[in-house]
Amino acid sequence: MPLVVMCGFPCSGKTRRAEELRVYFEQNSKLKVHVVEDGALGVEKNTVYADSQKEKHVRAALKAEVERKVNKDDIVILDSLNYIKGYRYELFCLIKHTQTPHCLVYCLTSDEQSSTWNTSRDAAEQYTQDILDALVLRFEAPDSRNRWDSPLFTILKEDTLPFEAISDALFKRKAPPPNQSTQSQPLSSANFLYELDRITQDVLMAIFNAQKTSVPGDLISVPGATEKIELTRGINMAELRKLRRQFISYTKTHPTENTGHISNMFVQYLNKSLH
Fold this sequence. Notes:
By secondary structure, the chain is of the alpha/beta class. The protein has eleven helices and seven strands.
């Protein structure tokens, strides 16, 4: 059943609004409501959001949990920052694949208001000011013109949630039709895009570092691959990143069922592209 994606600055009221929605749906429907949140993962927010790799792991875990919960009988509410446009697009692809509607609830506050609410929390629940400021700067606001951010409900702190409108968006609207990329996305690998990003980045760094001690004609071993890079010339990081972006774009629409094949696929792609 439908997915509700919460979105907003840290300490913008997302959890309170998610709880209001949970109560409303449980009282007005016979459907079970699942709330997926950072807290259930035992996340220490200041540690996670200070480390991009840890943050990626958390996002992948949240997405995997959403994917496990989304079905024909329940409502899923994802209560997290969801501040990255690309991540919201990944969630949109997920619901296209499962052919269920979704909506976005954007808790709009000023950074000053979020900071005030943050300092009113118990010390153990607070963001440090540096982390909060950094997250506000990185925040990519939703835009209803983007299909992955629509339907969009923007909620101010004094607003009452438009429960009926949200319910109509979820239950009286057709699910977005699946396309090739979402139909072929392997469900067996819930964090496929995360693994694709991580593995290809590891390969790039292995090539970049190996070039410090290699010469043209050497074969370079890379993590997770049985095949090797045939280094016919020096390759700068800009060119490697361009090839990586091209490979990721292609692989998103032609995913493998086994993420263990990604390294070899990327090596083959690089060898073909660099000759």
